[in-house]
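Tokens for chain A. Residues wanted.
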């Protein structure tokens, strides 16, 4: 009986936590489906009656379209993800499986850069990018984060170190060098952690706001977060349009999580077993 009571209390708390977590998103979707007149006349918690998709139409084909910022954001995210995964995998393999002088010292110094806040490097980064003539350009947004990140290298290094050495020795006995070992042994076994890292990297750079805001000044290279922020500032009274914009910006991340959730759960399981 005590175990049943504990289970009931646990599920009640989990349900309450889910409601608190999901309520802002549901309220955002509900508000985006109203007209400005409905939002002004009704309670914010009242459901839309009738349902209106005018705000979404305005953001897709209207004067305040978010399609160009969406295209720029997708291009930035794809390029950064490819660059970070490639560089992080190579660096993590070197730190995990290669022996060279100063390896551990170099790794911990590199990992120590995680302690440096973004605000401390914002101005030097901007001066460097401006000096290269890349201010207000696509490469100015992408270049500072293209070549890996300390967190990604640390995560992959720890996973690579947990792969049994016997598998790597067997591949080397068959004549495989480091590139073949990485491609045919390490990477197939690392799909769950790579999927998790993919999600983390996409979410981080999809939601990146400060650096694109600082390095760009024209509407041509606005990413989605900057465009939504400008929309909110310009149309602060039209909350239905703002909520529709935030909902559209969140949908691709939800779809990505649904697609890769099996790999994420598997990576959590493997990490827990280790």
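Reply:
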């Amino acid at each position: 009986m005590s175990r049943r009571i504990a289970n009931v209390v646990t599920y009640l708390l989990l349900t309450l936590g889910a409601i608190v977590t999901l309520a802002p998103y549901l309220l955002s979707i509900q508000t985006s489906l109203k007209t400005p007149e409905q939002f002004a006349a009704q309670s914010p918690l009242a459901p839309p009656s009738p349902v209106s998709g005018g705000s979404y139409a305005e953001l897709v084909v209207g004067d305040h379209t978010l399609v160009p910022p969406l295209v720029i954001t997708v291009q930035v995210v794809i390029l950064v993800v490819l660059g970070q995964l490639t560089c992080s995998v190579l660096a993590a393999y070197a730190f995990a499986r290669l022996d060279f002088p100063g390896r551990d010292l170099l790794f911990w110094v590199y990992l120590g850069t995680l302690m440096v806040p973004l605000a401390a490097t914002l101005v030097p980064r901007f001066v460097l990018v401006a000096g290269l003539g890349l201010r207000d350009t696509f490469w100015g947004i992408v270049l500072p984060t293209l070549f890996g990140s300390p967190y990604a290298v640390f995560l992959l290094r720890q996973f690579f170190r947990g792969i049994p050495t016997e598998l790597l020795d067997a591949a080397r006995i068959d004549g495989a060098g480091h590139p073949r070992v990485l491609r045919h042994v390490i990477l197939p076994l690392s799909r769950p952690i790579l999927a998790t890292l993919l999600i983390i990297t996409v979410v981080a750079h999809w939601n990146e706001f400060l650096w694109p805001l600082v390095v760009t000044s024209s509407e041509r290279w606005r990413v989605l977060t900057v465009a939504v922020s400008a929309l909110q500032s310009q149309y602060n009274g039209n909350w239905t349009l703002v909520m529709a914009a935030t909902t559209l910006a969140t949908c691709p991340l939800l779809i990505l999580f649904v697609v890769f959730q099996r790999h994420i759960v598997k990576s959590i399981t493997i990490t827990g077993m280790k």
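The mean pLDDT is 84. The first helix runs from residue 2 to 32.
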